[in-house]
TrEMBL record:
SUPFAM superfamilies assigned to the protein according to its UniProt record, in alphabetical order: Carbohydrate phosphatase
PROSITE patterns registered for this protein in UniProt: IMP_1, IMP_2
InterPro entries tied to this protein: IMPase, Inositol_monoP_metal-BS, Inositol_monophosphatase-like, Inositol_monophosphatase_CS, Inositol_monophosphatase_SuhB
PANTHER family, A to Z: INOSITOL MONOPHOSPHATASE, INOSITOL-1-MONOPHOSPHATASE-RELATED
EC code(s) of this entry: 3.1.3.25
Region (Disordered): 283-304
GO MF entries: inositol monophosphate phosphatase activity
The protein's name: Inositol-1-monophosphatase
Lineage, top ranks: Bacteria, Pseudomonadati, Pseudomonadota, Betaproteobacteria, Burkholderiales
Catalytically driven reaction(s): a myo-inositol phosphate + H2O = myo-inositol + phosphate
Length: 304
């Protein structure tokens, strides 16, 4: 059903997202029967991802045959190659959750015009939650206007993240971030679908989000939802040009500044000085761990 107040391009994206969502919901009824293959270790793709992507691309290109496509599973092989309009698609963000029957995953569709995100849809088929935004027109959840949270104290904040899961990811760096941040928060969550995590920041359900290793299709739609809901989004050092940078941080404006001051030094764009400080702290921690290990001979020499 077309919604009269939506931008026409957003209406087409909503139609595509709902078509993909109903396909995903049907498959979820018998997830054991879904064929799964592995792109790399811990990175899965299912026939559902591929079918959902196909229906999204068909819906978009039927309406706008001159537009370009950047999709998770098929890259840029469909659509026009030189259009200033490019649809950025993740047909099923949270595939690992989906194949376990863990109900936190979504469809994410964004439209970039000359490289700037102008339309966004994130659709959660399990809850039938539809998040939409058009640049300059605000962000909505199920047609109700949404705003980022008003919390300003970190100890009252709920922050979501995504843990590293691929070989070669910097697990130690992530543990450092978590140990710096977790004691300062009311709670940290790892739901497992970045696009939906970002929609939740836009809706004020969480106060912030950060993750490394993300691709443009994970972040594009969510980033517009957040900025249209009054939030900020960028890399860990706070710079707004982050879509191709594999790191993303988002929050309401007051919390965002505090996250930059804690996580900025972990950014691959941190200054050389900040990185050196981080290395020294890690070396000092390692030294302390060695010096506090009990002496191997103590138990035998002890009188009791």
């Amino acid at each position: 059903m077309a919604l009269p107040n939506l931008h026409p391009m957003l209406n087409v994206a909503v139609k595509a997202a709902r078509a993909a969502g109903s396909l995903i919901n049907r498959a979820a009824l018998d997830v054991e029967a879904v064929r799964i293959s592995q792109k790399q270790i811990n990175d899965f793709v299912t026939e559902v991802d591929q079918a959902a992507e196909k229906v999204i691309i068909e819906t978009l290109l039927t309406a706008y045959p001159g537009h370009g496509i950047l999709a998770e599973e098929s890259g840029s092989e469909f659509g026009a190659k030189d259009s200033e309009f490019v649809w950025i698609i993740d047909p099923l963000d949270g595939t690992t959750n989906f194949i376990h029957g863990f109900p936190f995953y979504c469809v994410s569709i964004a439209l970039a015009v000359q490289g700037k995100i102008e339309q966004a849809v994130v659709y959660d088929p399990t809850r039938n939650d539809l998040f939409t935004a058009t640049k300059g027109r605000g962000a909505y959840m199920n047609e109700r206007r949404i705003r980022v949270s008003k919390r300003v104290r970190l100890n009252e904040c709920l922050i979501s993240t995504g843990f590293p899961f691929r070989p070669g990811d910097n697990f130690k760096n992530y543990l450092g971030m978590m140990s710096d941040l977790m004691p300062k928060l009311a709670g940290m969550r790892r739901p497992g679908a970045a696009a939906l995590d970002m929609a939740y920041v836009a809706a004020g359900f969480t106060d912030g989000f950060f993750e490394t290793g993300l691709n443009p299709w994970d972040m594009a739609a969510g980033s517009l939802l957040i900025t249209e809901a009054g939030g900020l989004v960028g890399n860990f050092t706070g710079e707004a040009d982050f879509l191709e940078q594999k790191e993303c941080m988002a929050a309401n404006p007051r919390v965002y500044g505090q996250l930059v001051s804690i996580l900025g030094k972990y950014s691959k764009f941190a200054s050389a000085g900040e990185k050196a400080t981080l290395r020294q702290a890690a070396a000092a921690d390692a030294e302390e761990a060695v010096s506090t290990e009990p002496d191997a001979g103590t138990s035998e020499d002890a009188p009791f």
